[in-house]
Amino acid sequence: MITVLLILCLQAEPAPAVTNAEMFALQGENNILEEEHFGIINGLATIGVKYKDAASLCGFWSPPYVSSDFSLEITLFGEKVPANRYAWRPFEVTREGTLGKIHVLTAATLLYQYRAGMLSLSLKNTGDTEVQAPLHLAWGGTLDQTKVWEFSRPQSQTPAPAMLLDKGLKKTQGACVLALQTDEKTIAWDADASSGSTRITLAAGEEKTIHLCFGMGDASIVETCSQLLADSPNQVGQSRAEYNKRVEDLFTRLPRLTSDNPALETFYTRSLVHFLTNRWETPEFVLHPYYGTGSIKGGCVCNYLWNFGEVWEILPLYDPRAAREHIQQFLKIDITRHFAFIPTKGDAFGPWYMVNQEKIIGLIYFYVKNTGDADFLKEVVNGRSVLDWVVLNALHGDDPAGPVQLIDYGPSNSHLELRRGYPYNHIMPDLNGRRYMNYCMAAELCALMGAPAPYLKERAEALKLLLKQELWDPDLRWFRFKDAAGNTDLRYTVQLFKLVNSPVLDAEQRAGLLSHLNETEFLSEFGLHSMAKTDIAYDQVDIDNGGGGACTCFPPQIAERLYKSGHGREADDILRRILWWGERLPYWGDSLVANGMDYRKDTPLQCTLDGVTPAQCIIFGLFGVDAAFNGDITFRPQRTALASRLKLTGLTIRNNTFDIEVAGEEYSVRCGDRQIRAALPKALVFLAQEKEFHVSE
Fold this sequence. Notes:
16 helices; six-stranded antiparallel beta sheet; nine-stranded antiparallel beta sheet; alpha+beta
């Protein structure tokens, strides 16, 4: 059995002064995330950290082991030590506080390459007389194993009574063991109360350290705790060094952004942290590594196609092998019936979501474009080539033997999941409109593989005409939807803005949709509303799709599409409103509020993989990076009011590395010793065969 381990080492160690570690650090005074959603992760384990007091942890998840009500609470003089300062890093939280004359400094660190963690604690007497401080440790939690990691946090429920060890306590439940040990000989342990107590004597100015270690796994965890406890300072140092390596690796694969707008830099950088926080290295999972929809405190660890598909352009740059493997895993399940798979078994679960087909086609399309790995289209999954799966999904709901029809998606309200009972279902314009690019992407991939399918593009053009004829309202400058009886209604959903760079729209429709992108309808000071504020279905509480805000990926996705369609002013305006995300939250969850600095709280998805979409928007939208199937790379940076100078350094795509710098009305692109300049908005093209640049008119 694999051992799950978490160690708490209570000792005086300084917070790490490491440059890479500080890239993702967030100081507590800036944080608006509530304690319930606050935690750290190392790819094997995740715990909750209580930042209001200096030495408490809550909840412990390390698949397949769960102790959801796990708690460790340390008090002095019978009181918690209130934390007056703290800082978050992905794998570590430092806290400090004072109780009477005792100053407390802690660093809770999860250890990389272990299902383990350490808590470093310093107790210092700041007075001029001796202090005797009663110290009490309360330890609790039920214990279970589970193979089911879906949307909710897995919950443990089996009691495991504490038993005395030589230097601590253990809890046993079946083959699972929780162990707690210490090197402080004066602590007296009480198995019935699952606690330990001692009295710390500190002379004036003296510091005292205590080391605690606890873990979860099989019976060998007791010995493992002893070994790691003996090497605790070194383990913390190694973990900090490993974290730095992972950050360095991240920026070896993905570019760094520098700008004369610090908020834009912070926004971009914090977006990338979700590749670290949502990367699991769990041996019991079907993929290694595995990128879950969620992570922190065990929430939403499963993999939803609607979420994973949002990072279709940037994931192939960061981890192309994982992109391939995750695509293959989705093709192994029936995505015409299900929307997700469970990481431990790879089994499909949940209903079909109408965006599944767009997501799988886009994932495959951008993987091939951005890596050049066209042979992937020949791979066979469940009896079909990947290319065959692309065509099959492009035609899902369509009958190629007859003329193109608008798809009736049925009575389900699962697309927006509106809470107040107002419908948006049956023949929906955004979903039907997105089919246009499904056909086009499939046609391009077929042509790439020498199997042209012109009928796909023909169906796309026929769909374009049908969409306008049946659903476009020229007076309202918006699309209607039809119910089962053919009656039309209006729902002013942000989803329609996802069509702005698609040829499915003509100039009239594009201008019409953008006329609604205003303060009265979709915009507020802090973001983009998912439902127009003027719509009868608007619901402030329903943040993701009902209006109070929007799913985290929606504003950057729409901004990217606006940049790509030449509407940089509107794209800038959206990004300007959400730059606060990078400064006020350590990581981003399901949805963020548009009319206040707030986030959706009624969801376990508090750290989402699609948090990477802002960085994706900046690379492929603002900087206009576009790879062709022949390997040529086009650069078309947009004029922006967000900054007068900005630079992407170390963009590696199609086996070439570029630096792109924008300064005022000019920009330059460098590849090795080759550099070329151009005036905005002209495009520069890097010719892959010649390894040379030319200016595109």
